[in-house]
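Q: Could you write out the predicted structure for this multi-component system? I'm mainly interested in how the pieces pack against one another.
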Amino acid sequence: MRVSQLFAPTLRETPAEAEVISHQLMLRAGFIRKAAGGIYSYLPLAWRVLKKIETIVREEMDAKGGQELSMPIIQPAEMWQETGRWSVYGDEMFRLKDRHNRNFCLGPTHEEMITTIVRGDVRSYRQLPLMLYQIQNKYRDEIRPRFGLMRGREFIMKDLYSFDRDEAGLDESYNKMYDAYTRIFTRCGLTFRAVEADSGAIGGSGSHEFMVIADSGEAAIVYCGDCEYAANVEKAELHPITPDTEEALSLSEKETPGMKSIANVCQYLGINPEKTIKTLAYQTDTGSLVLALVRGDHEVNEIKLLNKVGCLQLNMASEEAIATLIGSQAGYIGPVGLADLKNVTIVADATVMKMHNAVCGANKPDLHYVNVNPDRDFKPAIIADIRLIQASDPCPRCGAPVKTARGIEAGQVFKLFTKYSTSLQATFIDDDGKEKPMVMGCYGVGVSRTMAAAIEQNYDQNGIIWPVPIAPYHAVVVPVSIKDQAQMALAEKIYQELNANGVEAVIDDRNERPGVKFKDADLIGYPLKVTVGPKAVNENLIEVKVRRTGETMYFGPDEYLAGIQNLLAKL
Amino acid sequence: MRVSQLFAPTLRETPAEAEVISHQLMLRAGFIRKAAGGIYSYLPLAWRVLKKIETIVREEMDAKGGQELSMPIIQPAEMWQETGRWSVYGDEMFRLKDRHNRNFCLGPTHEEMITTIVRGDVRSYRQLPLMLYQIQNKYRDEIRPRFGLMRGREFIMKDLYSFDRDEAGLDESYNKMYDAYTRIFTRCGLTFRAVEADSGAIGGSGSHEFMVIADSGEAAIVYCGDCEYAANVEKAELHPITPDTEEALSLSEKETPGMKSIANVCQYLGINPEKTIKTLAYQTDTGSLVLALVRGDHEVNEIKLLNKVGCLQLNMASEEAIATLIGSQAGYIGPVGLADLKNVTIVADATVMKMHNAVCGANKPDLHYVNVNPDRDFKPAIIADIRLIQASDPCPRCGAPVKTARGIEAGQVFKLFTKYSTSLQATFIDDDGKEKPMVMGCYGVGVSRTMAAAIEQNYDQNGIIWPVPIAPYHAVVVPVSIKDQAQMALAEKIYQELNANGVEAVIDDRNERPGVKFKDADLIGYPLKVTVGPKAVNENLIEVKVRRTGETMYFGPDEYLAGIQNLLAKL
């Protein structure tokens, strides 16, 4: 491809709307253009990257026995009503009516559709297992689309669905996909971790997320330096911390005028946060109150809390709700004396229950209890692990202190079990003659998000640094002066030879100053830049610069091809 | 691929809903499943066919300098309002609102989107020409989706848009695409014709349709056996037929009681239809009347008429409108004496104006005029070519009698000129320093429709007969008995060898009777069937049957591979 013809309009300025680096660089380097909030066109360079990621994904899916198909983007409401998700999805689902006033949505995912297809055509255990996948646009009407392709409203996903006879089969399919995902992100040239994950609103349990490691990642993860353990902080399980051995003292009140935060109370009373109980008040969808208790130095894990309480959504309670339901106010809430209240559920982290002589709010302004002893002074409705893991917490598996990092969720594998096959009656006749629901899994790769994540992980102040396997092109050949016939002839020869030998190269034949071409080359992020100037023509030295390291090498006319091939293989 | 694992659920019965053969066969052979009216899932076999068509299309687009990108399916209303097509598209456009109540549509086409992108990033003639394309789902909310993939509401299109400095550039781009399309349908192994076409509602003039020839085709085409001329009947131009040389006689009335049709009038008066003038009454969107005159043996071409009158829609006029506006009734309408009426436009076919002493309705029940001489007895507002070409009409280019055929429109190339660049202000600075609108073309291939058209053209009573280049697989290897170890071992060896040598083969390893496997093989339409039974094991004779011809050949173990490769190359 000649750059003079390539539609890759680069921008000098960073568009103001772009908050994250991948968004900024994809706009500046001419990879994407915005059509509406969270909705983008992929220009030719981006499309090449996406096709490469897709090819890697496709090869790995096929290698595991996946069969590619393509389901409609526009889906009739009926199948979503059968599973109940027509209402669950709320405003996040794009909905429309056809000219006959029938309801449709734009598929945010395809469990309903694939299960409907399979139930219609699979009758016998002999037709199982099945792994069916597609690579396709998905739609989610995010309340605030942002970060470019990181959280779009239209995005490209690979979604595979597995159908097995039993849980042993599901385990096998799940492991195949786990393995395939490990290969996919490795082949894309990305640094990533597979972490244990919460299975969220999609249902089922048993899930891993594949996190591309990047400081800008929205997800916090923990991992153990000693063993293999890694998890999304939302998911990471925690054992209760060993109790102190103090004798229980008598409960009493203490004035704490204006002391609303844990830090203030500790300073005022001269104690450590480890001796306090923090009480957070949440409101459920139905308006009742959930009081979550964690130790003062801990944080509530809202995902765990949601799962334990078993409701769909939790929001921080309003001052009004706190006043009405428990007659208290924020900063002075505590669990003592609230056990029998209607519409109030107390959920205590397991560590809280091991504490002695702790401090907590007394549900009156400017007053705290001291010498609170859980179980003696209050009995929570639920005792569970509801706190967030923190750096230096013990690894749930081996006990060594954990480390934290940030990541971008680029893939997720889920065990769905029989959630959808039961609600949609996708059954088969097993070899024992019995009708059973199929056991399902689902497995997603965010294809467009992976492209963005690759940039979040690989860039510098000059632009993108593409990993070779997903670079739009491997190399750019830059003749320093297109008016110099010898330079142009040599550059053209190199360009042709590279492409004839498996190196995807462009030639920057634009009538522009070399500085402009070099800047664009760095911005776009070709792994290698081959400069053809006077040195190449007069001294037979072809300059090859490695984008990632900045390293510059010179090759003779007979060596440059092998040199470039070697560099690409190593990068 | 092993058929025991392949998700290709075949059906014994033809589903009642399927009207056309491609729809019936794709359902029966396990290629597609319906999600809603006009909305289908493509199962793995169909997806393989579509990918092959896409690959051919992509290679030919790239060969002409096309650059692939991908634009959103969900498009904001604003750009459609700029061109006025937000209202023009009517109910055929799927529309939706996002959670913030903003209007979007599902793209039926992408002129607005691509022009908006290009106007934002192209400033100079140096950046032109550009040819940008995508392969993507398109959406049209057809009033009555039918014929399976032939007229779906969600379908796959390749759409390319060209941007040039001037009309000479557009001609060049258009010719490149015409050439590419010829190569595409040739490479797909289809019999087709490129025909001159009306450019329809999309605007502009200068267009060809690529018609896959099939008796079931919705489009009628004419072509000349002597010269290269071919056209959609809607488009085919006609010269007025040479006038007779009769002397004009005096206009008079004749009673024709109950004689409403041309046939009845001719029989009653003892004349030929060539001596009659047929008057058809249409109503425009604004309620006025258009009277179209053609010779009694000719048919009105409503597309031509629409273009001449310059309105958006024409419907047959109601009895009421005819009575109110011209005081006449169907069967007795004629042009005499209506010239000065408001809200009535008379459009005469050019041939009509060459007639002498003709018969036409007298706008009174049971009465006709005889000896009508156009121009003397009535003066039409418009004289033009408004009739449909018919078999044996003279070729508009060479005069030889034309032939007719039916076709499926699988591709279309259009000159848009500056229609969209003007309304969307997509301008550039030319080398003379002047700002000019870009000159555009658009070029579509119906990818999913091409698959259906291939079946409409290639099938027999047993199923599909795939052209080799787009067959889902080239060959099926059928071991007659999977319990016979020698047969299975040989079949497996052949299956492996074929795939290792570029022949895409499946092995039907299902525990089914051979008759079931043969029936499925014919239904699915693999070009070759390799049977491994006793003859292969005992006599070293491997049977290869050609799906299209029914021809059966036998090859030895060392010859079968070359034999199959030769067959595939010839098919």
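A: Regarding packing and overall arrangement: The CA atoms of residues 241 and 351 of chain A lie 5 Å apart.
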